[in-house]
Amino acid sequence: DQNNQSVALMVNGHQHRLELKPWVSLLDALRHTLDLTGTKKGCDHGQCGACTVLVDGKRVLSCLTLAVMKDGSEVTTIEGIGSPDSLHPVQKAFIEHDAFQCGYCTPGQICSAIGLLEEGKGETREEVQDLMSGNLCRCGANRGIINAIMAVKNETE
Ligand code: FES
Ligand code: FES
């Protein structure tokens, strides 16, 4: 197809070369082309944070990002973060602090939390809350989410 563009993405440590229409979002490329369905589509309009992934270590709303714009980038999705026998510290903290119920927002929350911790931002609980405000939770697990992030921050500082 002449409309297709070639996009190189390193996803969770694996190199992929995809042929995509220029208007395909990074979210759809991950979910549909690569079958990585851990990243969720909530609103598809940049309003819920369910689609958050890490691109070159920074948190990004993948529904608002065109895949072709990230040619040559490194993407980490929830599938690339920890595994059942070796959870990431943020995943452990989410379990310990009851930071999820239905789990729909959780992959995005975890990617966002890891990005925030790596950015070294958010001194206080209020700042962390503010920096996580783009990730909505319909189940009201927000208190647990912030508790989990604060616990990881305090352990690593
Ligand atoms: Fe991307 Fe809601 S699906 S912000
Ligand atoms: Fe259900 Fe957050 S745990 S939306």
Task: Please write out the topology.
Layout (H helix, E strand, L loop, with lengths): L4 E7 L2 E7 L5 H8 L18 E4 L2 E4 L11 E4 L12 H8 L9 H14 L5 H7 L10 H15 L1
Parallel strand pairs: 1-5
Antiparallel strand pairs: 1-2, 3-4, 3-5
Helix pairs in contact: 2-5
The structure holds FE2/S2 (inorganic) cluster (2 copies).
One FE2/S2 (inorganic) cluster (FES) binds next to loops.
Task: Describe this structure in a few short sentences.
The protein is α+β, with helices and mostly antiparallel strands and 157 residues long.
Task: Describe the protein's architecture and organization.
- The protein has 157 residues and is α+β, with helices and mostly antiparallel strands.
- The protein has two domains: 5-80, Roll (Ubiquitin-like (UB roll)); 89-156, DNA polymerase, domain 1 (Orthogonal Bundle), CATH 1.10.150.
- Helix content is 33%, strand content 17%.
- It has five helices and five strands; from the N terminus they run E-E-H-E-E-E-H-H-H-H.
- The protein has helices at residues 26-33, 89-96, 106-119, 125-131, 142-156; strands at 5-11, 14-20, 52-55, 58-61, 73-76.
- A five-stranded mixed β-sheet has the order 2-1-5-3-4, sandwiched between helices.
- Strand 3 and strand 4 form a beta hairpin.
- Helix 2 crosses helix 5.
- The longest helix has 15 residues, at 142-156.
- The protein is elongated, with a radius of gyration of 16 Å.
- The protein starts with a strand and ends with a helix.
- The relative contact order is 0.16.
- The model has no long low-confidence stretch (mean pLDDT 96).
- Bound molecules: FE2/S2 (inorganic) cluster (FES) (2 copies).
- One FE2/S2 (inorganic) cluster (FES) binds next to loops.
- It holds the Pfam family Fer2.
- Residues 5-81 form the 2Fe-2S ferredoxin-type domain.
- It comes from Chryseobacterium hagamense.
- Keywords: 2Fe-2S, Iron, Iron-sulfur, Metal-binding, Oxidoreductase.
- One of its GO terms (molecular function) is oxidoreductase activity, acting on the aldehyde or oxo group of donors.
